[in-house]
Amino acid sequence: MYDMNMHKPIDYQDKTDEELIILTLKDQNNFLYLMKRYEAKLLRYVMRISNLNKDEAEDIVQDVFIKTYQNINDFDSSLKFSSWVYRIAHNQVISNYRKIKVRPKTFILNDDSNFLENLASDFDLDKEIDLKYLKHNVNNTLNKLDTKYREVLILRFLEDKDYREISDILKKPMGTVATLINRAKEQFKKNYNG
Amino acid sequence: MDKNISQKALKTIRDKKIKPKSKLEFSIKEYLFWLVFVLSVFIGSFAVSIIIFMVNRGGLGRQSALLNVPYFWIIVLLIFLFLAYFNFKHTKRGYRYNPYLVVVTSVLISIVFGFVIYGFDQAERTDRMLYQKVPIYRKMIHYESNIMPMNEQIKPLFERKKIK
Predict the structure, then answer these.
(1) Architecture of domain A113-193 in CATH?
(2) Which of A54, A171, A174 has its CB closest to that of B1?
(3) pLDDT in tens, A8-56
(4) How far off is chain B from A193, nearest CA to CA, in Å?
(5) Who contacts A133 (Cβ-Cβ below 8 Å, separation ≥6)?
(6) What is the pLDDT of residues A91-102, one digit of tens each?
(7) Residue from A44, A171, A172, A176 whose CB has the most chain B CBs within 10 Å, to mutate
(8) Could you tell me where the beta strands, DSSP code E, fall in chain A?
(9) What is the pTM of this model?
(10) What is the CA radius of gyration of chain B?
(11) What is the pLDDT of residue B158?
């Protein structure tokens, strides 16, 4: 892509999400750069919260991008674009549950040793425990959690979102998010030790 | 495979000629939520003013106190408080506020404006107008004609017929 006025290639890497939105409104092809920036993150997030297989999760992410494009004029610049697009993904997963009427029963932890370490240090779990043992137990413990608790833990510890971002994604007040995280931790600890 | 999600999405957007919804559509939706919120608080304020009017007229310390509790208006107030909360929550940033804070603020606004409306004698006027023009309101509201000082003009409407 070239900037016609400057005769220099536009460096989309340097553009912020908000700048890419403005460019998308001028030319829909620019939306591709925005999608590329988020497709891996959203695919991982959708798989984590839904326990769908990769193909199904890809369909959902595709729908998320189409919805994002349709509603791009509704983007509130007081939010981070990432929070907004994660919110659309969260809603799309819920609407998918309603369609197939199945809630995720199991959660599979794949490649997230960072998550385990974060979780172990934050939850004061024994850090000397073998990672494999920890991974197995964390999987089991997460599977036992209520969906609402599992999702806040995923957003906080896997997606590395702060409270404000989680509040914007789940459309809940920050106080409620803090309460949810605390309860999720308590339930996690209880299940993990029990 | 996941490398193709973006291209596939863009292809669908092109093939189905999907266009972004207009800004106006979202603005109208947002204004509607605010409008219904403001209207709900306004109607809630009227409900409060009529509650004050009825309680003042009837006097809660009397034997018929329970009959004088304006249940109808209390229910109206609760319905419109719920509507106010629901609409506020659905505004763009409404979710950021604590639900209790939203409800308490709506109640406080309704009470303050309720006193203002009552102070300007609009509660009595509204009650009278509804009584005269809305038959169902007449049936729902229990009037104790012997305990209220009343405007001579409407007194006959409230008086019970004497059985000869």
Answers:
(1) Orthogonal Bundle (1.10)
(2) A54
(3) 556 777 899 999 999 999 999 999 999 999 999 999 999 988 878 899 9
(4) 33
(5) none
(6) 999 998 888 766
(7) A171
(8) 2-3, 8-9
(9) 0.79
(10) 24
(11) 47
